[in-house]
Amino acid sequence: MVQGRCAILAKRIFDLALLALTSWIWVPLLLLVALSVRLVMGPGIIFVQRRCGLGGRPFDLYKFRTMTNAKDEHGNLLPDQLRVPAFARRLRASSLDELPSLLNVLKGEMSLVGPRPLLPEYLPLYTAEQCRRHEVKPGVTGWAQINGRNRLTWERKFEYDVWYVDHWTIGLDIRILCVTLIKVLCAEGISQDGHPTAERFRGDVR
User: Fold this and answer.
1) Which of 161, 168, 154, 156 is nearest to 132 (CA)?
2) What are the per-10-residue average pLDDT scores of the chain (206 residues)?
3) In the Cβ-directed half-sphere of 92, how many Cα atoms lie within 13 Å?
4) What is the pLDDT of residue 192?
5) How far apart are CA 181 and CA 160, in angstroms?
6) Beta-strand (E) ranges in 17-163?
7) S-S: 146 plus which of 44, 157, 159, 179, CB 3.0-4.6 Å?
8) Residue 39: C-alpha distances to residues 2, 32, 42, 53, 99 (Å)
9) Strand bridging mode 58-64 / 46-52
């Protein structure tokens, strides 16, 4: 228990120290992208969605809005792929839409590295092993993200998440952050083939 508390504290100090040291980069970038989203997408810069954090507890995740509210003649929202303009696709490809989640890290709801936070409706669908992904704070990036991201099956993502829970070290976080930077620059694994976003999780179908 003492080791667990020390690890949690070390991870928190690491997150805050890295955010402070790089604030001269990400704070101006955050403001610049926010202005761009406002000019191109109109009102409603931030997209807020309920996600599950440590222990499965819900919190509000912040991202830049990348979908319009375009509707058909019957008033129904158009399919996702028709509501993502070219500007928003570039934003997603660069992962800059994730920048506001750094505010979640500052608030202590997330870590820089960890399993990605998912929707509360997925909680009852997890197996006992998959649910272990909630033993650590969710992350802006993670082990699954650098090993395939949205191109992975849900089952494979959860295997990577649980592996991270069992093997976490500060050194592993540094490795994941470095690889993430490279993959973001190359825009690798942003979405599944045929899907603008990851396909919804529907439970263990094996």
Assistant:
1) 161
2) 72 96 96 94 91 96 88 71 82 90 97 96 94 96 88 91 95 96 73 54 67
3) 20
4) 44
5) 19
6) 46-52, 58-64, 111-113, 139-141
7) 179
8) 50, 11, 6, 32, 18
9) antiparallel
Phi, psi of 161 (to 5 degrees): -60, -45
Q: Return the amino acid letter for 84.
A: V
CB 9 within 8 A of CB 1: no
Whether the full predicted model's pTM is greater than 0.85, yes or no, is yes
Of 2, 126, 92, 101, whose CA–CA distance to 51 is shortest? 101
Nearest-angstrom CA–CA distance, 176 and 144: 10
Tell me how far CA of residue 192 lies from CA of 65, 128, 150, 200, in angstroms: 20, 26, 5, 11
51 close to 117: Cβ distance less than 8 angstroms: yes
**Token couple for 107:** 């608030």
Gap between the Cα atoms of 89 and 168, Å rounded: 32
Rounded to whole angstroms, how far apart are CA atoms 176 and 57?
25
